[in-house]
Amino acid sequence: MLRRRIAVTAALAVAGALAASAPALAGQQGPPPLPTAANGATVERVASGVPTPTAFAFAGETVFAGSGPVEEGNAPTGLFTLANGQATKVPGTPRFVFGLAWSNDRLYVSAGDRIIAYRGWNGTRFAGSRVVRRANSQLKSFNGLAFGPDGRLYSGVGLDPRFDGSRRDPARYARTVVSMRPSGRGLRIVARGLRQPFQMTFPEGATSPYVTDLAQETPRRRVPLDQIVVARQGDSFGFPTCVRFEADDCSAHDDPLVTLPRHSSPMGIASLGETLYVSLFGGLEPQKPAVVTIPVAGGEPTAFLTGFVAPVIGLAINGNQLYVGDVTGSVYRVAVS
Fold first, then answer.
1. What CATH class is the domain 22-335?
2. CB neighbours (10 Å) of residue 197?
3. pLDDT of 270-311, one tens digit each?
4. Average pLDDT over residues 133-156
């Protein structure tokens, strides 16, 4: 698989990471092979046609999937529903989607430059929508979304590539996880010092989000470790003052829950019981994308879904079913318990 950086955020390098899948798929006839689950459960292909799948949400029987920018070509992107093996574009929704959250009969969509709340879903389209929060000069963009038990909406703030590395970003909300009321008001910084907080989840009983955070991937420099953090109110994880090249670096700052191998690039994250499920764009081994499990309390990652022919991004759990998408445009489903 040829390594190269892909853009997973509009005008941003979300992953700061890894590979496109075209070489691995060259000459292939039909859909890519199914990945394999470590628990022996059957993996299904739910649908195809979701390029750069970034996030999922569930409303009754409806499965929503978001798609970010594609690196090449003009494939349709944005918000889709998945049914009968097909992905159907939802009319009147954004061109790109970086986060989804369903709450109180509304679908909240991170379109990068804004968060939109959609209402009145009838199985085909929404009756209306309104922008609850816009990005601005002090907040570059929004990544993934999740509602906390406090009823507030949480999001990671997107990277401004002009200030990547050691340069100080003057924007007030740069390198933070933020929360707000569902109306978009009451914006509040939760945690600081995160280069690219991408997706998040609240395990059962948790009052703070568990967040995937992507490190730099600059070939000319020593590559830092990726990490998953528990973003508690007031935490500071050190970036860019301190960058973790070893797990015990940055002792003057708050510690991540776990550090991950260089180039693993954690993307989607979800939880069931005491287990986190994380999609690794690059994988635990070079160029071997995977979904891994990690104890909610922290610990070593263990491969759960392997055998992907292309990098994996979006991941979510609905009931006991895990959904994950890769950049071939396929979305897969497998029982995790």
1. mainly beta
2. 29
3. 999 999 999 999 999 888 999 999 999 999 999 999 999 999
4. 97
Q: Quick one: pLDDT at residue 223?
A: 87
Strands 275-280 vs 290-295: parallel, antiparallel or unpaired: antiparallel
pLDDT in tens, 162-209: 888 767 899 999 999 999 999 999 999 999 999 999 999 999 999 999
Integer Cα distance of 330 and 194 in angstroms? 30
Q: What residue ranges do the domains of the chain occupy?
A: 22-335
What are 222's two structure tokens? 């020593």
**How far is it, in rounded angstroms, from Cα 66 to Cα 106?**
15
CA angle 8, 10, 11 (to 5 degrees): 105
What are the backbone dihedrals phi and psi of residue 292, each rounded to the nearest 5 degrees, phi first? -120, 160
What backbone phi and psi angles, to 5 degrees, belong to 134?
Answer: -110, 145
pLDDT at 29: 63
- The single-letter code of the amino acid at 259 is T
Secondary structure (3-state) at 163? helix
Match 């092979």 to its residue by tokens: 33
Distance between CA atoms of residues 101 and 52, nearest Å: 18
How far, in Å, CA of 164 to CA of 162, rounded? 6
Task: Report the alpha-carbon distance of residue 169 to residue 200 in Å, rounded.
Answer: 23
Torsion angle (degrees, nearest 10) of CA 279, 280, 281, 286? -150
CA–CA dist 242, 56 (Å, integer): 33
* Reported pTM: 0.92
Write the CA distances from 183 to 121, 130, 152, 180, integer angstroms: 19, 10, 9, 8
Tokens of 274: 């005491």
312, 331, 230, 327: which is closest to 271 by C-alpha? 230
Question: Given this model, what pLDDT does residue 164 score?
Answer: 87
Structure tokens at 12: 């941003």
Measuring CA to CA, which residue among 258, 236, 212 is closest to residue 8? 212
